[in-house]
Each structure stands twice: as structure tokens, then as C-alpha cells.
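Q: Start with the shorter request: fold the first protein.
A: Done. Sequence, then structure:
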Amino acid sequence: MTHCDPEPSSAALPANSPDHPFLAPRGRKKGKTGPQATSRLAELLPTLALPQATNRSGLLEQWGADPATARLVLEIGFGNGHTLATLAARHPQDRFIGVEVFLGGVAGLLLRIQQESLTNIRISTQDVQVVLQEAIPPASLDQVLIHFPDPWPKRSHHKRRLVQPAFLDLLATRLRPKGQLRLATDWPHYAQWMLAVLEAHTAFARPGEPGSFDPEPTDWVTTRFQCKAQEAGRAVFHLAYTRMDAVFGGIIPPDPPCQ
């Protein structure tokens, strides 16, 4: 059962996340920040850039992690960073990358990183396509999280949605075989859109019944955004896909989630 407990109130959760990798974000991209948040962004954000490496092992080793045991996790559009920080605190042996364009949310995550002395998070405010192409080596990611992306509900705006075949093509090159893509949305139409796009993509598969959604993950982190959706009477739809094994052409079941 999901419990809506209060989150740290260091930053307001953005209303939208226009992080589509193939279109420039429309409307407010960076948002406004107060003096303290602006100071954190100037002082801390440059220290949390991703290590530069040409392969997964090199990236993790530069980050002080063991490539044989550490997971590399990417969250796209992390909002105020609650999920990312919670997972990083639970799993200090793993390494987490967060991509977010709204600086209020970034500043909030920076504060939590500072307060909890988290050393296993790196942050980018660049477009996610740039991050995937230029900062993350091929076949490096163990897990990608896309939670509550902007639904772009108007039909004329559907082309701006993050989950598109071309985006999945790029993402598939950065996920390891057996790597997991997890998605969540509270918009039924976008949930069906995600399901249709992923079911048609040859790089991703899942053992669940075709056309159905997955249960809430056992290691799910409840967010304030989710609580607001539930208070408004909107259900949350979950999907979990595995990156197909390019060598054998089959599905390798994902590892059990960390508890």
C-alpha cells in the first residue's frame, strides 16, 4: 500500500517537465530561484558533473565504484529529487544520475545532497538527448526511471511527449542488456500511449500480459506529486520493461529490485 508521507519542503515540485529530447522545451525552462537556491546552484552544481569516460567500467571507476557490483541508474525528470535522493541513500554502493531542467527542483536536490552527505549522485540540467549521446557510454545503464513525465494532453502536443520510438532507439543503446526501464504516469491516455509505443519496440520486452500494466514496484518511492494525483482521484499506472539481449535475441529476466 502506498503511503503519502511528507517530503522535504526545500523546493517546490515543478508543474511540468518538458524534457522531450527532440524538441526544445516550451514555456518556462529554468524557473525562478531565490538567493539561497541560486547560491547552491552556483557552488554545488559544478562539482556534481558526470565523470567523463568511454565505457561503463571507466565511468564507475572514476566515480569510486566497483563496476562488478555497482548499478548505474538514470532518472529522467527528477522533479524535486525525492526519489533520487531516497534511492541513493538506500543504496550507497550504486551510482545515480539525475537529469532535470527546472532549477528549483535541482536546487532542492542539491540541498538534500548537502544535508545527507550523499556522494553517489551526479546531476545534469542539459537536455536528456545530449546527456545520453555525450555523457553516458553505450550499454552502461542498469536502470532508467521515467516517473510522471509531462503528459502533453492536447492532441496537437502529443509529438512533444518524451516516450517516442526515436527516443527509445537512443535509450536502448545506453541500457545494458538485461537493463530495466521503469515508467509511471497518472494520465490514462499517456499510460496507453507508453504501453503502445513500448510494446511495438523491438529493443524492449516484459513478461506481463500484453495490454496490461504492472504492479507498483516493491522499492517504489512515494512522492508528493503522486499524492496530489491520488487526492485528485487519479490512479498511477506502472510499466517495467527489460532491454532485450542483443546477442541472443531473447529476454533475460531483470534482477530482483533492491529492497
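Q: Next, the second protein, separately.
A: Sequence, then structure:
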Amino acid sequence: MAGAAGAGAGDRADAPRPKTAGARPDGAGERAGEEAGASGAAPARARATSAGTAGDAAAPGRADGRAPDDGDAEDRTLDALGLAGVPREQPLLYPGAWPRESGLLVGDRLLPLDLPVHEDRVPVLAIGSNASPGQLRHKMAEFGIESPIPMVRSRTTGVDIGVSAHVSRMGYVSASPVRAPGAVRELFVLWLDAEQLAVIDASEGVPMAAGNFDRAWLPAPDVRVEPGDGTVLRGVYAYVNRHGVLHDGAGAPRRHPGEQRPLLTELLRGSARLRELFGTTPEEFCARARADRGLCERGTRLFAEERRVTASGLERYVDSGRTDEPLPPTPPPPTAPMP
């Protein structure tokens, strides 16, 4: 994996153009923990190295996936770091624990990362649980993907974290990016290869007509992303919600509180009809949503019927970020379950 060279991703005017994996998933059945199902072509099993060839001097880790100076004395497992939780399995954990600093996710370990820009990969801004190493590991393991993922903490201006206007089949109400000129947040940029990108696309429902998200290219200077090496990326991908986002009561996108329990408590308190569908507690909400896809769809429609929904402000970028432009589409398997 190449580092931040002069013609790197931070210097390109256009969105990256990686090849899209074409293999289908094996055994990718419908399950309660899937947000968008096994849609999109699931990647073939990746190599354990982060670059095309093991031992590439420009790769962020060695041929065995370890960073050069990670050391054996320090326990860098996700369990030891408190990052192993999986919101897809325990929805009240959403959005999951985020790292304190940049790192290289290799299996169940988060290793030190030296290079903040990887020109042969695609930069994807993580807004919710995609910044959780435990969640990422879970998504990749579902398709047998073992290649490392650079996670780069970046100063991001122009985007904030809103609340999705849909009820996820995994039992939570997720985060969605919203346009916020001047807002500054510390967010993570995932540098994904084509196989990893196909997995994340599928988890967000991008290849599906009834999916919940589109992948959009957010260009600078509209969105300014500084990975910490003195450069500014020319843009990043982000997943924009097709349903819109919830507003704050005054028409502006509401901010996600960062924890699921207080969000669900407030949403249930504010709607008798929502309580009729999902119960009166966050635990009931999660359990009922995970057990009934149709109920999730009714809850999503209810948000719109009760006029709780507004635009994210990022919809205008969707056409430039769909998988058919500038990236070729990855068709879902014929038996892919709906999100």
C-alpha cells in the first residue's frame, strides 16, 4: 500500500477509480444482524497483507500485517483496547467504541499506523459504527476478508453527525452525515481496497434499489479533511441516507447523541405511535426491530408521516458518488436479502 506520495489521494482532483470485486459471497444468508443484507458482489478472500505484494516497502505493515514498531509486549487486541464490541450484535452499543488515535486494523488487533494517506485505496469517511474496529472486523469476517484496514483520525470541516430517518434491521437508529458548514469534527477516514469497499457498500445497501444509503463523493473545499500530515484530501466518500435525517424540531438536522439508549428513549417519549410499534424502552425497541423487518419499514414510514424528517444537505453529491460514477457497479447476488 503506497504512502502519501506527491500524486497521492490528497492531490487528485477526481474521485479514485479502483476496480470493483466481482466474486459473489458464499453462505451470505439473511440474518437479524444484517443492516442491508448480503447485497453487492461479495469479495473473494483477500490476502492478509495490505498491499498487492507482501513486503512492499510502501505498505503500512509488514508481510505478516504487523506495523514495524508495534512490539510484542503491548497487547493490541481489540478486547484489550476496549474496542471489540459489535453493535450489529448488541444494538445498544451503537455506534460502538472508536479508537483514540489512528491505527491499522489487522484481524482482532489495532496496530500503530505510520502513513495517513494511501493513494492506492479509497478514502471513506466513517460517521457511525464504521469507525468502530469491532464493527468493521465483524463486517469483513462475514465475507472472509482479512486484509488490513488503515483507520486515520482526521480533522473534518463541513460535515456533522446526524440521525438517520430510518430504523435499521439491526435494531438501532444509526448516524448519517449532514452538511454543516464551519463545523469541525474529529472523524475517521477508512482507506479501503476494492474488496473492502464492496463489503461496506453492501452493508449500507448501496447496490440495492431499496437500500438505505448512497455512497457520495464529498469534494474539497466543501468538505475539508486533514489527515494530520499537513495535507488536505481532495475529497472523501461518505454514505448519505436515502430517507433523509431526523430534524431537531426547528427544521435543522438534529445531532446524533453518540449513544443509542438516550436517542431511543427520546424518540419513544416523543411519539405514541412509535411506542405502539416498538414498546416503551430501548431494549424493547431493539428486540422488536431485530425480529421484524416489516416493523422497521413501518417505523421508517412513521418518521416521515410525523414530519420528523429533513434533508441532510448532502443529497446533491450523490450522483457523483454512486457506484456507477466514477466506480463501476457491483450487482447484488440474485438471492440477496433486502435491508
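Q: Describe the second briefly.
A: The longest strand covers residues 175-192. The CA atoms of residues 23 and 44 lie 6 Å apart.
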